[in-house]
Design a protein that fits this description.
Blueprint: H1 12-18, H2 22-25, H3 34-37, H4 42-52, E1 56-61, E2 68-76, E3 79-86, H5 88-115, H6 119-129, E4 138-145, E5 148-155, H7 159-165, E6 168-169, H8 175-182, E7 186-188, H9 191-197, H10 204-208, E8 212-220, E9 223-232, H11 240-277, E10 309-312, E11 318-321, E12 324-327, E13 332-335, E14 345-346, E15 352-353, H12 365-377, E16 393-394
Helix pairs in contact: 5-6, 5-11, 6-11
Length: 395
Amino acid sequence: MDDDWRITFVNLEAEGMLGSSEEELFSRVLWTLPAVRQVAGMEARRRKAAAAATPASFDVQMPDTGRRYHLRLVPVPDGVTLYFTDVTEIRRHEAERAAAERAFRITELTAAVAKATTSRDVADAVAQRVLPPFRATGLVVQAVEGDRVHNVGAVGYPRAFLESVDGSSRVTADPVWDAISTQGPLFVSSAQKYVARYPTMADHPQDIGKQAWAFLPLIASGHAFGVCVISFDQPRRLADEERTLLTAIAALVAHALERARLYDAEHTRSQELQRALLPQSLPELSACTTAARYLAAGQGMDVGGDWYDVIPLSAEQVALVIGELYDSTTRMCSITRAGQPPPVVVHPDGSVYFPHLVPDPPLGGRAAVRDGRADAAAGKPPRAVHRRPGRIVRA
C-alpha cells in the first residue's frame, strides 16, 4: 500500500483472503474492502502503528469464516507492507495447551488449599497456582469485617497502595464492594473502562500499574465474606471459558478461606491462653541462672510445649519442673521420663550431650494397658487410669 493506504500489490494468498483478484484490488483503499471492514478496530490500530513508523503486529479473527490471522505491518519507503498469516490451528493448539495447564494448576490448587491451615496459606496457594496460567500479575484477597475489608494476602502491588485499601470502608461505586454486594464476578478489561465505571478511583490504574481486573466474590453458606482480585499488566478481555474457570476457583478459595479463618480464630485464642498460663517472670536464684523460651518444633505447631516451673527449695536446692528435679549441692539431676525425649545437658564449658536414659511410658500408659486387658477379660467397659511417672534414674 502507498501512503494513502491504496493497494499497489497483492499475492495470490491475499487475493483469496480478501475475496477479490489483484485487478479488482489494485488502487483500492484498504479500509473500504468488506473483508477488512468487518474486523472491528482494525483501521484505527493500523493507522496508529503506521504513524509510529515502527513494525507492529496483532491477531484478528474474521467473523465470516472464524479463521484467525496474525497481521504484521512493516513501514517501507512510500508506504507500508501488510503481512497476513493464518494462525487458526496454531492458536487452537496454544489454547488447548493453556487449558491443559490451567486444569493442572487447578488440580494443584485444590491439593494446596486442602493442606492450607491459615488464611495466608490460602492466599499464597492462589498466587502460586492461579496467576501463572492466566498470565496475571497481581492478587489481593480481602475479607469483610463489619463495614470494612481487610487484606488477607497480596502479590504484585505497591505497599503504599495495599496500606491505603486495607481497612477501607463500604462505599458506592467501588468494584470490591460491588462484587461483594451483588455476589457476582466483575470483569474489567481495560483501564479506560475502569475509569469510566469508577471515576472517583481514576488514579488507581496508574498508581498500581494494572490494566485489567477480575473481582471475584468469596461466597460460603450463601454469604459473601470477601473478595479475590486478580489483575493484569495489559488490557485483557477474558474468554467465557476463562471467566467460568475463575469463578469456580473463587468458590474453591472461599471454602478454604472460611475454614482457615476459623483456624486463625482458634489459633489466636490458643496463643492468648498459652501466654496467660506461662509465668511472667522467673525467680532469681543463687544456685543457678534460669531462662525459658518456647520454640515450635515444626511449621504449624505454634501452640503447645511442656508446662514448666522453677521452685526454690531448702539447702540451695532447686526444682526445675518439666520432668527434671536438680540438686545444686550434689550437682546431680534426677530425671523421670514419662515418654518424653531426654533433656539436653550443657556444661559450663559449653559442651553438650544427651543423657542415655531408658524412657518409661507416658502417664497412665502401662497401667491403662494392663487394666484395660483385665476389664476386657471381665467384660467391663474401659476405665480412665492415672499413675505416677516411672522410676527415677540418676545422671
